[in-house]
Amino acid sequence: MARKESLLSAFKGGVLRLREDGGPCSDTSPHLASLCQLLECILRKGLRREWSFVPGWGVAASRCPWRGASVSLSPTEPAWGFRRRDYWHWLEQLPTGDSGRPTPLSISIQKAGSCEKARTAQGRGRYFLRLALQGKVLAAAVQQLAQTPRLLEFYDPVSSILGNEDLLEPFLSLLLVVTEMDFSLDLQNCSFLDESWLLPVCITYETVPCRALGMVLRYVDGRVFVTEVLPESQVEVDEVVLAGDILDEINGCSLRNAYSGQAGAMLQKLKGQPLSFRLLRWQWHDGGVYEPLLPYLKVLKEKEPRFQLQRSPRCRGEGESQRLQGGRLLYNLRYLGRTSIGEYGGKEVLDRAIPAVLERHSAAREVLFDVKEAEVLIQEKTSSKLLCRYPYPTISCVGRYVDSSNLFAFCVATSPESPDGSTFDCLVFASSSEQECEEIIRRMAAGFKHTEWFV
Predict the structure, then answer these.
(1) What is the spatial distance between Cα 326 and Cα 312, in angstroms, rounded to a whole number?
(2) Which end of the chain is more exposed for a tag (fewer CB within 10 A), N or C?
(3) Distance of alpha carbon 144 from the chain centroid
(4) Mind listing the pLDDT tens digit for each residue in 365-405?
(5) Tens digit of each residue's pLDDT (9 = 90 or more) over 70-119
(6) Parallel, antiparallel, or unpaired for β 25-26 and 183-184?
(7) What average pLDDT does range 158-180 have in this prediction?
(8) What's the CA dihedral at 341, 344, 348, 351 to 10 degrees?
């Protein structure tokens, strides 16, 4: 009669809870991490230690220990000793099949073994489990183990689950149930699997080519931390990166185990190209610090005593005058009208162009004003219909009206590709406050500077 195994009972409960959640299981599922931890405990239970050759350590004395000589380990001589095994060590040795063609299982094992972000057997094993859940090959891996006697020897038949026939059968039945479930996991989010099943919040940040992004970086144990976002920089304008976040990838290239200066060297090579970053947030889903980061942040604080975690972008304000749309900050403005100003679009024309618009007393129009990385978008407030789009190279100037602190205007080229030369129009807007007006002008001015590569 098979012994009762509490781990199997707990794993069965975890599977049932995950099924009850309904729909594809994602990284935000409250039951996923605990299920993975139980699965790992089952795969580790009863693993035998390996008696193996350990180079670089050995006996320093010339006489044998049983003849009375005192002995010590020397870092120059080899020795035999116990090595701790993990489930990854048998997974990577699973047969690939008789045909020699790649199978979904062998592809998952190969991906886990070559993952640049997982540096330990624990990390690679955990990455494989995530791949196997999404690829529905976990049951196939355990079935392959059961058919490979030399790998079954990794487990003690008395204390293990996988090495005990009576316990292996119900475990396989549960894995087949898991195989029928759908998983939608962010498999690129694997840089902390060496340390924890708890995954950080991971986002993608894309930005335009520019001369300087405005991030100050610090390297701690192979991880690239943002320690400061510089004022009026492209990164501050984009309102995505926060001090304390980690650069995980740049344009698909991993920065796990990065050497000092590696991120800067990569950015120098990519100068003038669009950039895509994978960021790991210091802040977890519950608003607190992502727990596995605490040792790194302690070291970071020792290196830079003035370092502070940044909770929100400096540019982002709150209130009825602003709206979030698709994660971007939009301003609620009143569009007062436009006027033609001729062939000169310098800032000097604003002093006469703005009064010219105001004197018409045209009906103001409620609009949403979006200051993007490479252009300005103006939408109708009620319907969000796009009214006009102005890339920064077509904007000649922007400024505030001296007689009214909440009015500003910018000039745009109306025929930039005309052989006879451009003519310019001036567009006038009213904001809710002087502070908001200054913020919009500052962000647009930063846009001019950071789009030099487009001109």
Answers:
(1) 17
(2) N
(3) 34
(4) 999 999 887 889 999 988 888 999 999 888 989 998 888 88
(5) 333 334 444 545 567 899 999 999 987 666 789 999 999 999 999 999 99
(6) parallel
(7) 95
(8) 0
Q: How many residues comprise the chain? A: 455
Tokens standing for residue 155:
């487990």
Angstrom CA distances, 411 to 403, 426, 431, stand at 19, 4, 17
Report CA 282 to chain centroid distance, whole Å. 10
Q: Which two tokens stand for residue 118?
A: 């997982």
Q: What is the Cα gyration radius of the chain? A: 31
pLDDT above 90: residue 133: yes
CA neighbor of 443 nearest in space, from 408, 415, 405: 408
Most confident of 97-101, 161-165, 205-209, 322-326: 161-165
Alpha-carbon span 206 to 208, nearest angstrom: 7
